[in-house]
């Protein structure tokens, strides 16, 4: 029902935009720098070859390694420790207004000449929250009882997630502001798409590696089966 409702809203609003929104024909279109796919990739390659862009790409490709495990694995480990999936999903609801407000607040601090300062300042706090997430997972079985988890545990989880969102959006908005500031206006779309793609990749590949490393780095003991190893998923299943 939820997906059906928002699917209908999406179709109606985009149809209304298509029907009633008209292009301003009085404006003279700017000269396009690229004519097709080949020219676009040639342009992208020339951008990537610039030393400053290479250095920046290296920065944003590796900047999220430190908190990839906490971001990718915490929710899964909480479920593994018995926190119901539906409760975790409900905890995401209070985050929605926060996610709407945060970019508006943070943009005031990233509008100056050095937007990346906000990125650097938020990083140590986000790393510390990764440790706090580890404590949350460790704490889960300690407070669990027959009726589930106490209300105060959920309150701590919500507060932790809220603080995490503040650091996450501080870094995200700062990177977006920096990309917008340094992109050449003549090829702004191509330039920003390249930097944003590298930024997204910098968040995705460490999370993938972190998820892949969960099993090899997890120490397991077999209870009631002496001499039986359970280091792999198949052996643990047996």
Automatic annotation (TrEMBL):
SUPFAM superfamilies assigned: MFS general substrate transporter (SSF103473)
Gene Ontology MF, one: acetyl-CoA transmembrane transporter activity
GO CC annotation: what is one? membrane
**Keyword NAD carried by entry:** no
What are the recorded Gene Ontology BP terms? acetyl-CoA transmembrane transport
Task: List residues traversing the bilayer.
Answer: 6-22, 43-67, 87-106, 118-139, 151-175
Where would you find this protein in the cell? Answer: Membrane
Name of this chain's protein: ACATN protein
């Amino acid at each position: 029902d939820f997906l059906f409702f928002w699917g209908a809203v999406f179709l109606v609003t985009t149809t209304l935009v298509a029907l009633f929104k008209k292009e301003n024909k009085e404006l003279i279109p700017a000269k396009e720098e690229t004519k097709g796919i080949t020219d676009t990739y040639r342009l992208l390659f020339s951008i990537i070859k610039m030393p400053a862009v290479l250095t920046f790409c290296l920065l944003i490709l590796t900047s999220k390694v430190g908190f990839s495990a906490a971001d990718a694995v915490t929710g899964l480990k909480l479920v593994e420790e018995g926190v119901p999936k539906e409760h975790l999903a409900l905890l995401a609801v209070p985050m929605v207004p926060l996610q709407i407000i945060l970019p508006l607040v943070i943009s005031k601090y990233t509008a100056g000449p050095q937007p990346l300062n906000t990125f650097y300042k938020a990083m140590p706090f986000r790393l510390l929250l990764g440790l706090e997430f580890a404590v949350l997972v460790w704490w889960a079985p300690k407070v669990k009882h027959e009726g589930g988890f106490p209300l105060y545990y959920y309150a701590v989880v919500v507060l932790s997630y809220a603080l995490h969102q503040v650091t996450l959006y501080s870094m995200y908005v700062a990177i977006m502001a920096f990309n917008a500031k340094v992109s050449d206006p003549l090829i702004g779309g191509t330039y920003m798409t390249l930097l944003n793609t590298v930024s997204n990749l910098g968040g995705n590949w460490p999370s993938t590696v972190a998820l892949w490393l969960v099993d090899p780095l997890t120490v397991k003991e077999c209870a009631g089966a002496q001499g039986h190893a359970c280091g792999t998923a198949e052996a643990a299943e047996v």
